C-alpha cells in the first residue's frame, strides 16, 4: 500500500536528516595531525654517454625537526634520453620507514621498490616546465602495492645568468600527487600530495642547491587518519661525467 503524501514526505526528511548526521559523524572521525619534519636529499644523474645517465639518489628524512627517523630512501636507476625534451627511466629503490609522529605505524617497515618514469620538459619563455609521470611496484614487508605519481614542476629564473649560463638564482615550484591502484590500497586511492616551494642556486650545469618548504599531506589507508607534515626541504644535485 502506498504511503500518504505527508507520511512519505516525513520519511524522506527523516532519511535526509539521518544521512546528514552520518556525513557529520564521518567528518568528525577524521583526524589530521600537523607535524614538523626535516628532509635532506641528494640526486645525481651521472653521464655515461650522449643517451644514457646513471641515476643515484638518497633522501635523509627526519621527524620532530631532525631529532628522529621518519624514513631512509635510496634509489638507483638508468636514464635514457629520447631527445632533449623526453627522458625515460627505470630502477630500484630501498626504503626504510620508521614509527613516528601522532599516528605511528606498529613497526619499522622494509620496502623494496621498482619504478619507471617519463619526464617531459617544456620550456615556456624563460620558464622551465617539467612533467614527471612515475609508476611504482612496492613490496612492503609481506604486502604488495602499486602506485602512480604525477609531478608538475616549474623553474623560474631569478637572474638572467640562469638562462644564459646555467648559473644563478632560481625559484622551484612543484606539486606531486600519489594515487594507489590495484589490491591492498585500502578505502582511498589518494595516498598523498606534496607541494614544494624552494629557492635554489645553480653553480653550473651539473651542480645546484635548493632550500625551501615542503608540505606533505598523507592519507592513511582507512581514509580517516591524515598527516600534514610541514617540512624544511634541502636538495643537492651533483652530476658526474663518466663518458670522458
Kindly state the number of beta strands.
11
Can you tell me the overall shape? globular
Question: Any low-confidence stretches, pLDDT <50, length ≥5?
Answer: 1-6, 22-27
Largest sheet: 11 strands, mixed, barrel
The span between the termini is: 88 Å
The strand line-up of the biggest sheet is 1-2-3-4-5-6-7-8-9-10-11
Estimated helix fraction? 10-25%
Rg from alpha-carbon coordinates: 23 Å
Write the H/E string, N to C: HEEEEEEEHEEEE
- CATH class group: Mainly Beta
Question: How many alpha or pi helices?
Answer: 2
Q: Decide which structural class fits the backbone.
A: mainly beta
Q: What's the rounded overall pLDDT mean?
A: 90
Q: Would you tell me which CATH topology applies? A: Porin
Task: Provide the β-strand percentage band.
Answer: over 45%
Description:
The protein is mainly beta and 244 residues long. It has helices at residues 5-29, 160-164, and strands at residues 31-47, 52-63, 68-83, 86-97, 109-124, 127-140, 143-157, 168-181, 190-204, 207-219, 225-238. An eleven-stranded mixed beta barrel has the order 1-2-3-4-5-6-7-8-9-10-11. A hairpin with a 2-residue loop joins strand 6 (127-140) and strand 7. The longest helix has 25 residues, at 5-29. It is globular and about 70 Å long.
Amino acid at each position: 500500500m502506498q504511503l500518504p503524501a505527508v507520511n512519505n514526505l516525513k520519511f524522506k526528511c527523516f532519511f535526509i536528516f539521518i544521512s546528514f548526521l552520518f556525513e557529520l559523524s564521518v567528518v568528525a572521525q577524521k583526524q589530521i595531525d600537523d607535524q614538523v619534519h626535516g628532509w635532506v636529499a641528494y640526486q645525481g644523474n651521472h653521464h655515461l654517454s650522449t643517451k644514457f645517465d646513471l641515476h643515484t639518489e638518497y633522501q635523509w628524512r627526519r621527524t620532530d625537526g631532525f631529532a628522529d627517523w621518519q624514513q631512509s630512501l635510496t634509489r638507483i636507476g638508468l636514464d635514457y634520453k629520447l631527445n632533449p625534451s623526453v627522458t625515460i627511466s627505470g630502477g630500484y629503490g630501498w626504503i626504510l620507514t620508521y614509527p613516528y609522529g601522532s599516528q605511528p605505524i606498529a613497526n619499522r617497515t622494509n620496502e623494496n621498490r621498482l619504478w619507471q618514469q617519463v619526464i617531459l620538459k617544456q620550456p615556456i619563455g624563460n620558464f622551465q616546465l617539467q612533467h614527471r609521470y612515475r609508476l611504482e611496484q612496492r613490496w612492503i614487508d609481506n604486502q604488495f602495492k602499486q602506485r602512480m605519481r604525477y609531478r608538475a614542476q616549474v623553474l623560474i629564473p631569478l637572474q638572467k645568468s640562469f638562462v644564459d649560463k646555467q648559473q644563478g638564482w632560481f625559484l622551484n615550484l612543484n606539486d606531486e600527487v600519489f594515487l594507489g591502484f590495484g589490491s591492498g590500497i585500502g578505502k582511498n586511492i589518494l595516498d598523498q600530495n606534496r607541494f614544494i616551494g624552494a629557492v635554489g642556486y645553480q653553480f653550473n650545469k651539473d651542480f645546484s642547491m635548493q632550500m625551501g618548504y615542503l608540505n606533505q599531506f598523507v592519507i592513511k589507508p582507512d581514509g580517516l587518519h591524515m598527516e600534514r607534515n610541514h617540512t624544511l626541504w634541502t636538495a643537492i644535485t651533483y652530476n658526474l661525467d663518466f663518458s670522458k
